[in-house]
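Quick review question:
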């Protein structure tokens, strides 16, 4: 199955680089994440026209991408798990489940996905949630090997849910490095990591991962700041980005995709990216 996995990795990465636009936020059960995703067919059409390397979706929405005619559409990255850490109020029980417990990767194979993605949550005082994620990943990894499917693991270190309106990203470098290392030990082919508080430290995440590292975008921010942070993280060894709200919640997703693609594939500067965005 090594060759099959390599074929899928080649479809996902263009010369080793990748922009993956995440629109799988519907599984988070958080209303604010859906702003800009009300009409999924329209969003997918806009993104296909913009031409990122990949679009990250769930099984229930993936047909909108895979039914598009032609061979030059973005690759499909399929989310195959879901959890409940994203709401403002802390839940009595925190959980993370695979969408299909019997054969979680089969639906991705049937949808011709280039990759599957699963979470590795690390929340304060939630050891059971972490254990569930380990179990999910262990099961998924076996199926990925069976089908030759690349596995993207998303290690998420979060701050306590206390006064922040939900679990927020913890950018502590040591914590991110440690959890990224766990993801690699579990067999990640690709790691989708949060940025470190100091972008200059992100090379440590890349070194610990020993596989391609994509940067997770997080919440919507000022676009110039997003470009600046992205350039700094790419310079530290990230091979691309998985951005969602910073693309689909902006009024012109097409221009943002073009700017990010130029940064990832053509080493564009922040000034270059802003020029593309405002053109």
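Suggested answer, residue by residue:
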């Amino acid at each position: 199955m090594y060759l099959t996995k390599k074929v899928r990795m080649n479809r996902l990465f263009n010369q080793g680089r990748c922009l993956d636009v995440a629109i799988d936020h519907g599984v988070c059960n958080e209303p604010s994440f859906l702003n800009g995703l009300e009409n999924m067919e329209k969003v997918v059409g806009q993104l296909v026209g913009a031409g990122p390397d990949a679009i990250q979706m769930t099984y229930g929405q993936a047909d909108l991408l895979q039914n598009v005619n032609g061979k030059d559409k973005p690759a499909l990255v399929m989310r195959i798990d879901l959890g409940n850490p994203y709401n403002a109020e802390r839940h009595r029980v925190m959980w993370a489940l695979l969408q299909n417990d019997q054969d979680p990767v089969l639906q991705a194979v049937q949808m011709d996905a280039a990759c599957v993605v699963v979470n590795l949550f690390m929340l304060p005082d939630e050891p059971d949630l972490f254990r569930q994620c380990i179990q999910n990943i262990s099961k998924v990894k076996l199926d990925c090997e069976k089908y030759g499917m690349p596995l993207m693991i998303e290690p998420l270190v979060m701050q306590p849910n206390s006064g922040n309106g939900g679990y927020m990203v913890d950018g502590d470098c040591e914590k991110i490095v440690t959890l990224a290392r766990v993801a690699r030990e579990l067999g990640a082919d690709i790691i989708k990591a949060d940025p470190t508080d100091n972008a200059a430290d992100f090379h440590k995440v890349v070194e610990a991962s020993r596989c391609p590292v994509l940067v997770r975008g997080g919440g919507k921010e000022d676009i110039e700041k997003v470009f600046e942070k992205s350039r700094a993280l790419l310079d530290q060894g990230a091979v691309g980005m998985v951005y969602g709200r910073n693309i689909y919640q902006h009024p012109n997703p097409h221009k943002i995709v073009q700017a990010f693609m130029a940064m990832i594939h053509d080493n564009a500067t922040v000034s270059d990216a802003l020029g593309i965005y405002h053109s």
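Why it works: The chain has one domain: 2-278. Residues 121 and 130 are 6 Å apart (CA to CA).
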